Amino acid sequence: MIGATLQPFCITSPSLYEAQGEIDQAIQSYQVAIERLESIQGEIRVDELKSDFAASYAAYYEALIKLLWQEARGSEAFEYAERVRARAFLNQIGNQQVDFRHGAGTTLIEQEHALRQEIIGCKTR
I need a labelling partner for 76 at 20 to 30 A (CA). Which of 9, 61, 69, 108 fits? Predict the structure, then answer.
């Protein structure tokens, strides 16, 4: 999986900075890693893979949020917490099939069917 392949490269630097007590540098490294991973995730076109990829780097958000909170940077921690929550929500609804016919009247469903038949007719000509 892509996330597992990238994990050693993205997490090594921030965790080393954190272990050495260089918290500001660790925070900055986590932020850069998250930006890069989100950019890669944005290029993934298969919804199921997007969710799997996002799940593979959730620990980066967790570590960053923890550090920001410890450094009394609560508003930034909250922003990242909301960001990861919003991404998870978007991935979740992106993976669902929306039934646009649910709640539609009979007339609309009949119109949709007629239009589909018309489109099929145009394709076969």
Answer: 9
Would 114 be classed as within a structural domain? no
Are 44 and 50 spatial neighbours (Cβ–Cβ below 8 Å)? yes
What domain range is 76 assigned to?
2-98
Total domains, the chain: 1
Query: Mind listing the pLDDT tens digit for each residue in 43-86?
Result: 877 767 777 787 788 889 999 999 999 999 999 999 999 998 88
What is d(CA 81, CA 102) in angstroms, rounded to the nearest whole number? Answer: 34
Residue 93 φ/ψ, nearest 5 degrees? -75, -25
Rounded to a whole number of angstroms, the CA Rg of the chain reads: 22
